Amino acid sequence: MYVENREAKSMNKILLGALGLAFVTISSPASAAAYEGFYIGGRLGLTYADAKVSGSSYSEALEETETYSQKPKTNGFAFGGLAGYNWIFDNIFIIGLNVAIDYNNITNTKTSTGIHGGINIINNLTRRFSFTPSLKVGGCITENVVLYGQLGATIGWFRLHSFTNQPGDVGTSSASTSKKLWGIRPAIGIEYHHNYNLAFTLEISRDIYNQRIRQTEYQFVNSVPETYNNASSMKPIYTSVLFGVNYKF
Q1: Measuring CA to CA, which residue among 132, 157, 175, 131 is closest to residue 211?
Q2: Residues whose CB falls within 8 Å of the CB of residue 110, separated by 6 or more in sequence, listed in order
Q3: How far apart are CA 246 and CA 84, in angstroms?
Q4: Percent helix / strand / coil, the chain, rounded to 5
Q5: How confident is the model at residue 4 (pLDDT cuts 50, 70, 90)?
Q6: Per-residue pLDDT for 190 more than 80?
Q7: Residues 44-64: pLDDT tens digits?
Q8: In terms of CB atoms within 10 Å, which end of the chain has fewer, N or C?
Q9: Is the C-alpha dihedral spanning 11, 14, 17, 22 positive or negative?
């Protein structure tokens, strides 16, 4: 029994020592100055684009309305830059502000076929640029590593391009609408500080736009008033994984 108690006490001491060492490591980075200050950076990665499309098409000739829904998905490369400032408190907690500009010229494309017995409707949604100011909150988990979360307000520049055609008809009608959409960008990330000036980051973010792009397209079949009215609405969501390099002044 005494041996067991002694082993238990030894194990408790080891656990307490490990916890104490972890606490010291977390709360005492090598140099707090390496985390605080103004920085700029660049980043590159992959963006996965998802969109929810709802639409309706009215045929004057048939005097009927058909509705449709689409979920176009795609992915592509993204790159951009950012600038920000970090403040550190108690040598462990970090609060920062930053502004990011990202570019990813990827297009969501989806086709609905057989509308009104033969009409094809194609919707293309493209986001080119986004501008995002964010609040950053994090903490030092080792001498060189910071975990953080961010929440930002993002604005994206979009273009919705719709096509309507009917097999056997001459020509294809189209319509295009450009619009800025507002949304939110939650993100989580990790930073590795290589030295006083240089840091590497890995970040996962999600741009959620609560607004929609809407447009209406008309098609005159064979130049007679056999009109098809296609009303489309898209609500986009973008998920990005970005690797970055920051330089602190």
Answers
A1: 157
A2: 53, 70, 71, 72, 122, 123
A3: 10
A4: 15, 70, 15
A5: very low
A6: yes
A7: 998 888 777 777 676 666 666
A8: N
A9: negative
Q: Which of 132, 145, 141 is nearest to 98 (CA)?
A: 132
β partners of residue 167 = none
Strand partners, 180: 157
Every domain of the chain and the residues it spans: 31-248
Structure-block tokens of residue 241 = 């994984």
The per-residue pLDDT for 61 is: 63
Of all residues in the chain, the percent with pLDDT exceeding 90 is 29
Q: What is the pLDDT of residue 141?
A: 85
Q: pLDDT at residue 27 above 70?
A: no
Query: Do residues 183 and 207 lie in contact, with contact meaning Cβ atoms separated by under 8 Å?
Result: yes
pLDDT higher at 158 or 114 = 158
Measured CA to CA, the distance from residue 184 to residue 206 in angstroms comes to 8
Length of the chain: 249
Residue 242, C-beta contacts closer than 8 angstroms, at least 6 positions apart: 43, 44, 45, 78, 80, 201, 202, 203, 204, 205
Distance CA 46, CA 242 (A): 7
CATH topology for 31-248 is Porin (2.40.160)
